[in-house]
Amino acid sequence: MPASPSTARAINDRLALRLLQQEGPLTAGRLKQLTGLSRPTVADLVERLTAAGLITVVGEAGEQRRGPNAKLYGIVADRAHLAALDVRTEGVSVVVTDLVGRELAEASVPIGGDTGTGPAVEQAVTLVERVVKEAGADRLHTVGIGAPGLIDPATGDLRDTSGLPEWHRRLVAALQERLPEARVSVENETNLAALAEQREGAARDRDTFVLLWLSHGTGAAVVLDGALRRGVSGGMGEIGFLPVPGTAGLPSATDCEGGFHSLAGAAAIVGLAGEYGVTVEGVGAEPVAAGVVRGAVAAVSGGGGDAAGALSGGGGDAAGASSGGGEEAAGASSGGGGDAEGAPSEAGKDAARALSGVSGEHAGAPSEGRGGEIGPLSEERGGETGAPSEERGGEEGPRSEERGGEAGAPVEVSRDAVAAPVELSRDAAAVSVEGSRDAVAVPVGVSPDAVVAVASQAGGGVLGDRLVVDAAGRFLDALADRLAVGVASVVAILDPGCVVLGGEVGQAGGEELAARVEARVRRMSPLVTEVRPSLLGGDAVLRGALLTARDRAQDELFGSPER
Question: Which residues lie closer than 8 Å to 203 by C-beta, 6 or more apart?
Fold first, then answer.
């Protein structure tokens, strides 16, 4: 049945407006080429959309040729203003744009955990009103909100989920009350991140994929055949509740502790990094978990002395501290320095190899004494997955008095100290040579005394960086082991073909972490799956909220141009 004239006009108008949104200003001739419509039909729709206040002349094309110039038509950007909110447990971020998505103003405000519900809601609403004013907007047409938790598919409301602040749920109603003319909607943060990655990020060429959200918490979003899937209750992708091996217990209906969250949440990642002696300072606004992952990636990717120093907490110049002081050693980067001055002797190289765990069957293998942590999956490490060494007895070895008591405390040992046998414990320490304040991170299972002795033989600085790089690599391996468990579980059920490691942590891990996870999943599953790092990181939530707000506003405004 052919479309009625009014339906045909509406379809043509929407097509032209979508092209103007995607391509930017166009001439009537170019619209004719892209739409396939006749010249009179294009002339009619241009006149109709101009009269409706949706498009206007924004310039001219063909200034270099003779004759009259063609008019360029563009969407009237200030016809409507939009706002997007990224609501986190620790604060909220807001951005205001025009109808075509051009950002006009943006701001964030932290909201502490001890802030009451009422004050927290007021802080968030006040921030929105301030950003709207800074953007020069009189009112908002549409507001899109991204928040953690379950969204009721029947009502579109944020459900009452234990563990999340009450002000999250109150915020939607408060915004609707203070902005009565605006259309306010809320969506799960991970779902919005997936939409953003699909349209502007790592999944632009994929109709089917899964986003694994790695930030303060964990989550997953499922996109099948180009459509976001939410599940019957709106909870599809609550991977934090997935029961996994390697945790102290099982999750409950009200608490994801004991599930995948316990392996891959921000606190768990920071704790894992600490076990390998990997720490970082000065991470700025990003989560600490993202900071340690970014630092570890920089170290193993050839970041050299600066990256090693950042990980060991001593700053850029502290990396590769030599036995006699703090001078940087030439070639103090992983794999480099073969011809560098101060390169270690053959004896020093052998000792360094022993320290780095390249030849030991226990290298990188966690003991059961650490709460049943998942063991390494990589074949390079040798031994059975997660099997504790019999020499360890499943217990942490006793700390010698020479270590100075607590793991991680600097120990002062003379330059003539003799290397003690490598201890197969989970202890990590920072070693200070001859009382120097410059320290290097010691990989798991390495005696501080051994490090001092080998550093004396090898020239100190080069070895120091190598120790840090080795610890960083084994931390990334252990993290990849954990993430692979969650990814493989998703792959076994959905077979998405592609998994994006999202959030701040996924972006920080980059190709280095994604490749490690993909290799493990390939060994665990017959279903070939590409693992990619996020291109948008933590910004994906705000971007996804903006895209959904823009789509909703344009659907409404473009649907009835006659008004």
Answer: 194, 197, 209, 211, 223, 498, 500, 532
CB 310 within 8 A of CB 292: no
Q: Nearest CA to 276 among 29, 143, 82, 473?
A: 473
Pairing, β 218-224 against β 209-214: antiparallel
pLDDT digits (tens, 9 = 90+) for 322-339: 333 333 333 333 333 334
**223-256: burial string, b at 16+ Cβ within 10 Å, e else:** beeeebebeeebbbbbbbbbebebbeeebeeeeb
| DSSP character at residue 429 | -
Q: In the chain, how long is the greatest CA-to-CA distance?
A: 94
Closest Cα to residue 245, out of 524, 530, 553, 532?
524
Residue from 453, 475, 527, 455 nearest 289 by CA = 475
Phi first, then psi: give them for residue 146, nearest 5 degrees. -110, 130
Q: Is 122 exposed, middle or buried (0-12, 13-18, 19+ CB in 10 A)?
A: middle
d(CA 233, CA 443): 45
What is the model's pLDDT at position 75?
A: 94
Q: Is the pLDDT of residue 84 over 70?
A: yes
Task: Give the residue-averaged pLDDT of 112-121.
Answer: 91
**6-17: b (≥16 Cβ within 10 Å) or e:** eeebbebbbbbb
CA–CA distance, 239 with 115 (Å, rounded to integer): 29
Provide the pLDDT confidence category of residue 67 given band limits of 50, 70 and 90: low
Q: Which of 134-143, 383-392, 458-467 is most confident?
A: 134-143
Residue pair 132/156 in contact (Cβ under 8 Å)? The answer is no
3-state secondary structure of 97: strand
Which DSSP string corresponds to 303-348?
-HHHHHHHHHTS-TTTTT--TTSSPPPTT-STT--TTSTTPPPHHH
pLDDT of residue 463: 57
Asked if 305 contacts 332 with a C-beta cutoff of 8 angstroms, the reply is: yes
Higher pLDDT, 359 or 174: 174
The token duo for 266 is 């921000």
